[in-house]
Amino acid sequence: MKVRIWMLTLCLLTGLSQVLAQTITVKGNVVDENGEALPGVSIVPKLAPKTGTVSNIDGNFSISVRSGEKLTFSFMGYNSQELAASAQMKVRMQPSDLMLNDVVVVGYMERKVANTSASVVKVSAKDLAMKPVANPLDAVQGKVSGLQVFSSSGEPSARLSMALHGQGSLGAGTGLLIILDGMQVSMNVLQSMNQNDIESVQFLKDAAATSIYGARAANGVMYVTTKRGRTETRPTVNLRAQYAVSSLANTDYFDQLMSGPELLRYYQETGIYTPAEIAAFKENYFKETDFQWYKYVYQPAPMYTADVSVSGGTTGVRYYLSGGALSQDGLRMGSSYKKVYGRINLDANLAEWVKANVNTQVSYDDTQVSPFGSNNAVGGGLAAMNAPFASPYDPNTGLELERVPLLDLSTPKHVISTNPAKTNAFILSANGSLTLTPIKNLTIRSLAGLELNYGDSRSRTLPSYYRAYGNGSSQRAYSMASNVTLTNTVAYNMGFDDHHITALLGHEYTNYKDDGFSASGSGILDDRLYLLNNATQSKSVGEDTNSYAFLSFFTQLSYDFSERYFVDLVLRNDASSRFGRNKRNGLFWSLGLLWKAKSESFLKDVSWLNELDLKASYGTQGNSSIPPYSTSSYVGKVGQKKGGMSLGFVSLGNPDLGWEHQSKFTVGAKARLFNRLDVNLEYYNRITSDMLFEVPLPYTSGLPVSSAGYATRYENVGRYLNHGVDFQVNADLLRGRDWGVSANINFNYNRDKVLELFEGRQSWHEPGGQLAYIVGKPITFVLPLYKGVNTQTGVPEWYNPGTDKDQTRRDDSDVVSEYTTALNQNTGVSAYTPFTGGWGISAYWKGFYVNADFFLALGKHMISMDKQFYENDYHVRNREGNYNGSRKLFDYWKQPGDNTEFPSLDWVRQANHQSTYLDSKMLENASFMRLKNFTLGYDIPRKSLGKQNIVRSAKVFFTGRNLLTFTKFRGIDPEVNRNVSYGVNPNTKQMSVGVEIGL
């Protein structure tokens, strides 16, 4: 009996000990290679992968597991570790090669950025995420040396203008080639994206990086990579929401307009109205009010955005799913942009030697563009000129009117309600790839992709619109564009001793097609009957279609010796349907060299020098960005005769038209100093030859006049040079256990020069324009040169040009006092901005962080046509218009000796005279600097979230965009990327608050 009792007791104790040994609470701390706390590290039990945790802001973690269980520690950019669980753990993470040698995509291969001769700049997800603007690429501005990014409009749906190392062509397209997850896409796809789905954006700048893309890479390549799921992590859910308010980025221009009392004083002082008439103004209209029209036209507008993403994976399948929506109203009335979007990225290991991935994005947007144009006084570019003593509100009730009697204008409310218009677009971007590794070091990959863009637009003018006079109209249009891409590559890696070779062969086919259909009509007599079948007059239909294709074969060879000396070779042949059969093929190539000098024995022991790379490259690329069928001669409808269709030549074509060629040489150095300072310096020389240029033809050619104002034909003519310097510095200024300060600066200086024109010409002035192409000079502005107001006579004076108007001539003894366009001459001012750059600073302390990024453009010039309206007595004295003007108009000549900006009233008010003309006085320095992005946020510590397992992380933040603007430009907006600024919809600034929660 005693034996049984002892055995029972022993069994109970043994079972109890096993129960107690089943689970233990593991507490620990995770640090990086420098011993600093590493938050966000995933800690997952090997036998229970669904029950994991992450380290908090201090690197601490706590998890209950079975004793002896293996824990997997993983974090992006660091090597995963598998360690046995114990009560107290101290884990030091070591950087992986991905972090020490950041990976970039060069051509159709991934390369360590430290081991490629290519010039590549990478912008990471943290620089793009949660910015209060619809365009995902807005935050790129000022981040990449050599990349000019300008926002030319305050419309929420507006596109950015981007140019890399200057404008590469005088006649063909200059846009960057956009690659999204391995497939070429249009800018429409990026515009419709969720910025939080982007993992990185890489800019490929030199020939060693771009020649592999051959035909389409003359203007640089932008490679966008989206986020993917991570292996061996439990599902991660991120919720984000943001609210923003937009207002004008800069009001200096509008603030210099005269107030009501100032305008009345100008009326009286200059004799526009008599004292009795001014008294009547005060009694009937002014009524002690002073209305600022620009504040009415540009009212604060809200933006809302929210999205959710789920990601995770196992060793077999990884996934990333996201969806969200954005709604943004524009400042100018009647404009808005709304979009909903979703993404699915899947990666699967079908076998040890077979991998597959699928990337799918879908979006639907609703766009309303303001109906008020640049010269519109209702709600457009000239609306701020309306007299301040006139108001769109009823003085008795305070309600908004439909018409302003004094100005004989309808109000924006009436125009918008009676002119409804919008555009919808459905965009699908999808690609899938299959990767095979049948034997070691051999990789076979096939990718198929599709971009589909379906658009629908409609606009109506209802009969109740007061300027329709009872005759309404309607218009509808449909379009569909598709782009199919097929890419096949075979790559083989080999190595022996210190030699390493990677060879790649590839084939690519691209097929683009678009179809459009439109119909319109007028004679609609009832607001309720606005469909096209109710149109009774001016019925018309239209249809158009375009298509083109590329067929390409390419090879890439990369060699290195001892990871010290690198050689990259590229050869590509492209065939384009845009060119005739004889000139359809183009052959492009590049050679890149890299020397990792730090690896040499004489530099290895230099402690303050951590890295030194010297590189050089030379290569060629092509450009075919012209309308399809430009090489073909064909006839079309040119009119009607006796009720029948008249046929005539629409294009003479050019069967000998071929590729525009570009050659680019780049040399540079990159260094890391004191393990804190990264410096990159590059020089480039870019020559475009055989340019695709619309050469003017005589009117006797019989061809219809083009948009240029004369008949043209595309030819391969001329040469054009861009050369300059890129400089970039990143500095880790201060660093502590839980705080740090870093800074960055970059700039580009680019100069252009026309080397050769068509038909042996030494110059070409744009007919009806203000630009001149002069051999040996940059593209320059051509205008009459304004000398100023004669201090003795009060008469304006202009310099007489010489016999050669391509030369700038300022002779004080040869001036005239009557304006004429015959005074046009070379101003010597470049049309393109030579200097752009950016700088920023960021800091963190415990959970707080702050970032500020500035963008600047120096030497930028623009013709401010607005001055011809706002700074012109001619319009202010127009009694029918009742326009306002700048208070600078008070600075007019009154007596001998006056040094003034404007001529005497006696001269100005003579027939055909005015205060301001289209001359060099309007050509202003539009240099500016903007606080592009400012973020202040707080990462809430994990311990502050309480003892719960739902919310893993949370942060709140404030973000500002375009908060500060510094400029001497007297126009509306200095950032507009045009030669002429006139009634533009100005850029906006945003102030937003947001929250991000991780589950």
Give an account of the 3D structure.
There is one protein chain. With 999 residues, the protein is mainly beta. The chain contains 14 helices and 53 strands. The strands form eleven sheets. The chain has a 22-stranded antiparallel barrel. A five-stranded mixed β-sheet has the order 10-15-16-13-14. The protein is globular, with a radius of gyration of 33 Å.
Annotation keywords:
999 residues, mainly beta, 22-stranded antiparallel barrel, 14 helices
Write the layout of secondary structure elements.
Blueprint lengths: L1 H21 L1 E8 L10 E4 L7 E2 L5 E6 L4 E6 L2 E7 L3 E5 L4 H4 L2 E4 L2 E4 L7 E5 H4 L18 E5 L8 E5 L12 E4 L2 E2 L2 H5 L6 E7 L2 H4 L10 E6 L6 E16 L3 H4 L4 H10 L5 H12 L6 H5 L3 E13 L3 E13 L6 E16 L2 E15 L34 E2 L4 E2 L1 H7 L2 E16 L5 E20 L10 E25 L2 E26 L12 E25 L3 E12 L8 E12 L4 H4 L4 E15 L10 E8 L2 E8 L8 E14 L3 E20 L15 E24 L3 E18 L6 E3 L5 E4 L5 E4 L2 E4 L6 E4 L15 E2 L8 E6 L4 E11 L2 E11 L2 E4 L2 H4 L2 H4 L28 H4 L14 E3 L2 E13 L12 E9 L3 E3 L12 E2 L6 E11 L1
Parallel strand pairs: 1-7, 13-16, 47-52
Antiparallel strand pairs: 1-4, 2-3, 2-5, 5-6, 8-9, 10-15, 11-12, 13-14, 15-16, 17-18, 17-53, 18-19, 19-20, 20-21, 21-24, 22-23, 24-25, 25-26, 26-27, 27-28, 28-29, 29-30, 30-31, 31-34, 32-33, 34-35, 35-36, 36-37, 37-45, 38-39, 39-40, 40-44, 41-42, 42-43, 45-46, 46-49, 47-48, 49-50, 49-51, 50-53
